[in-house]
Amino acid sequence: DTAVSQTPKYLVTQMGNDKSIKCEQNLGHDTMYWYKQDSKKFLKIMFSYNNKELIINETVPNRFSPKSPDKAHLNLHINSLELGDSAVYFCASSRRLAGVSSTDTQYFGPGTRLTVL
Amino acid sequence: GQQVMQIPQYQHVQEGEDFTTYCNSSTTLSNIQWYKQRPGGHPVFLIQLVKSGEVKKQKRLTFQFGEAKKNSSLHITATQTTDVGTYFCAGPSSSDKLIFGTGTRLQVFP
Questions:
Q1: Nearest residue, CB atoms, A99 vs list B43, B92, B100
Q2: Which of A56, A59, B89, B108 has the most other CB atoms within 10 Å of its CB?
Q3: Which residues of A touch B35 (CB under 8 A)?
Q4: In this complex, do B42 and A110 lie within 8 Å of one another by their Cβ atoms?
C-alpha cells in the first residue's frame, strides 16, 4: 500500500488556469506538508498542517490555497497559474509537527510535476 | 533565519571512486536526518543522527554528526551507479519545520 499518494503525477496547463493537486496519507500521521522543488532541486516548504490546522505558511502567494478536509488529506489549489509556478510539488507527512527537538522523519509522496505554458 | 548549506552542489565520479557531501547548519541541531532522492523520484529517508560525534554506517555509506552538532557528512565508499541521486541533509528548527539542506547531486559514470 502506498504511504503517501499524490494526484496527478503530471500536470501541464496554460498560464492563467486554476488547478488542484490532491494528497492522501495512510500512515495515521498528524502532520502534512507541501513542498516546492525547483529546477535546481532546492526543497522549499510551502505549508504545513497539523490535525487539519494550518501551522506554517511560508510567504507563499495567496494564489496558492491549501485545504485539509481531514488529517489524512491535504490538497493544494492554485489560481491564475504563472510560468514561475512550474516545479515539482511534493506532499509529505510526519507523525507529529517538526519542533526543535523532533526526531520524526518525513515521508514524501511521488510528486506532481507542474508545467505552466 | 536558520540555513542549512551543503557542498558540493554537484559531484561527478567514476564508478568505484569515493564520494563525500558536507552539511553545515547556521544553528545547533538536536538531530540531523539524511534523505536520498533518485532522479525522477521523491526524497526517501536514509538515517538520523542524534548524538554529538555520532557515526553510523549503512553498508558503503558512513554518516557523521559533528561534535558541535552544527555539521554532518555522508561518505560513500566505492560508488556504484545505483548511488546516483541527490542527497539532502535536514534538521528540525524552532519554527516547527524541518529545514532541508541545499542538496548534493551525485552522478556516477560507469
A1: B92
A2: B89
A3: 106
A4: yes
CB-based contact, B41 to chain A, within 8 Å? yes
Q: Which three cell numbers stand for residue B103?
A: 542538496
Burial annotation A45-73 (CB, 10 A radius, 16+ → b, else e): bbbbbbeeeebbeeebeeebebebeebbb
Nearest partner of B43 among B1, B98, B80, judged by Cα: B98
Task: Give the position of cell 493537486.
Answer: A21
Cα separation of B50 and B29, whole Å? 9
pLDDT tens digits for range B7-41: 999 999 999 999 999 999 999 999 999 999 999 99
Burial of B51 per CB tally in 10 Å (0-12, 13-18, 19+): exposed
Cis peptide before B39 (omega within 30 of 0): no
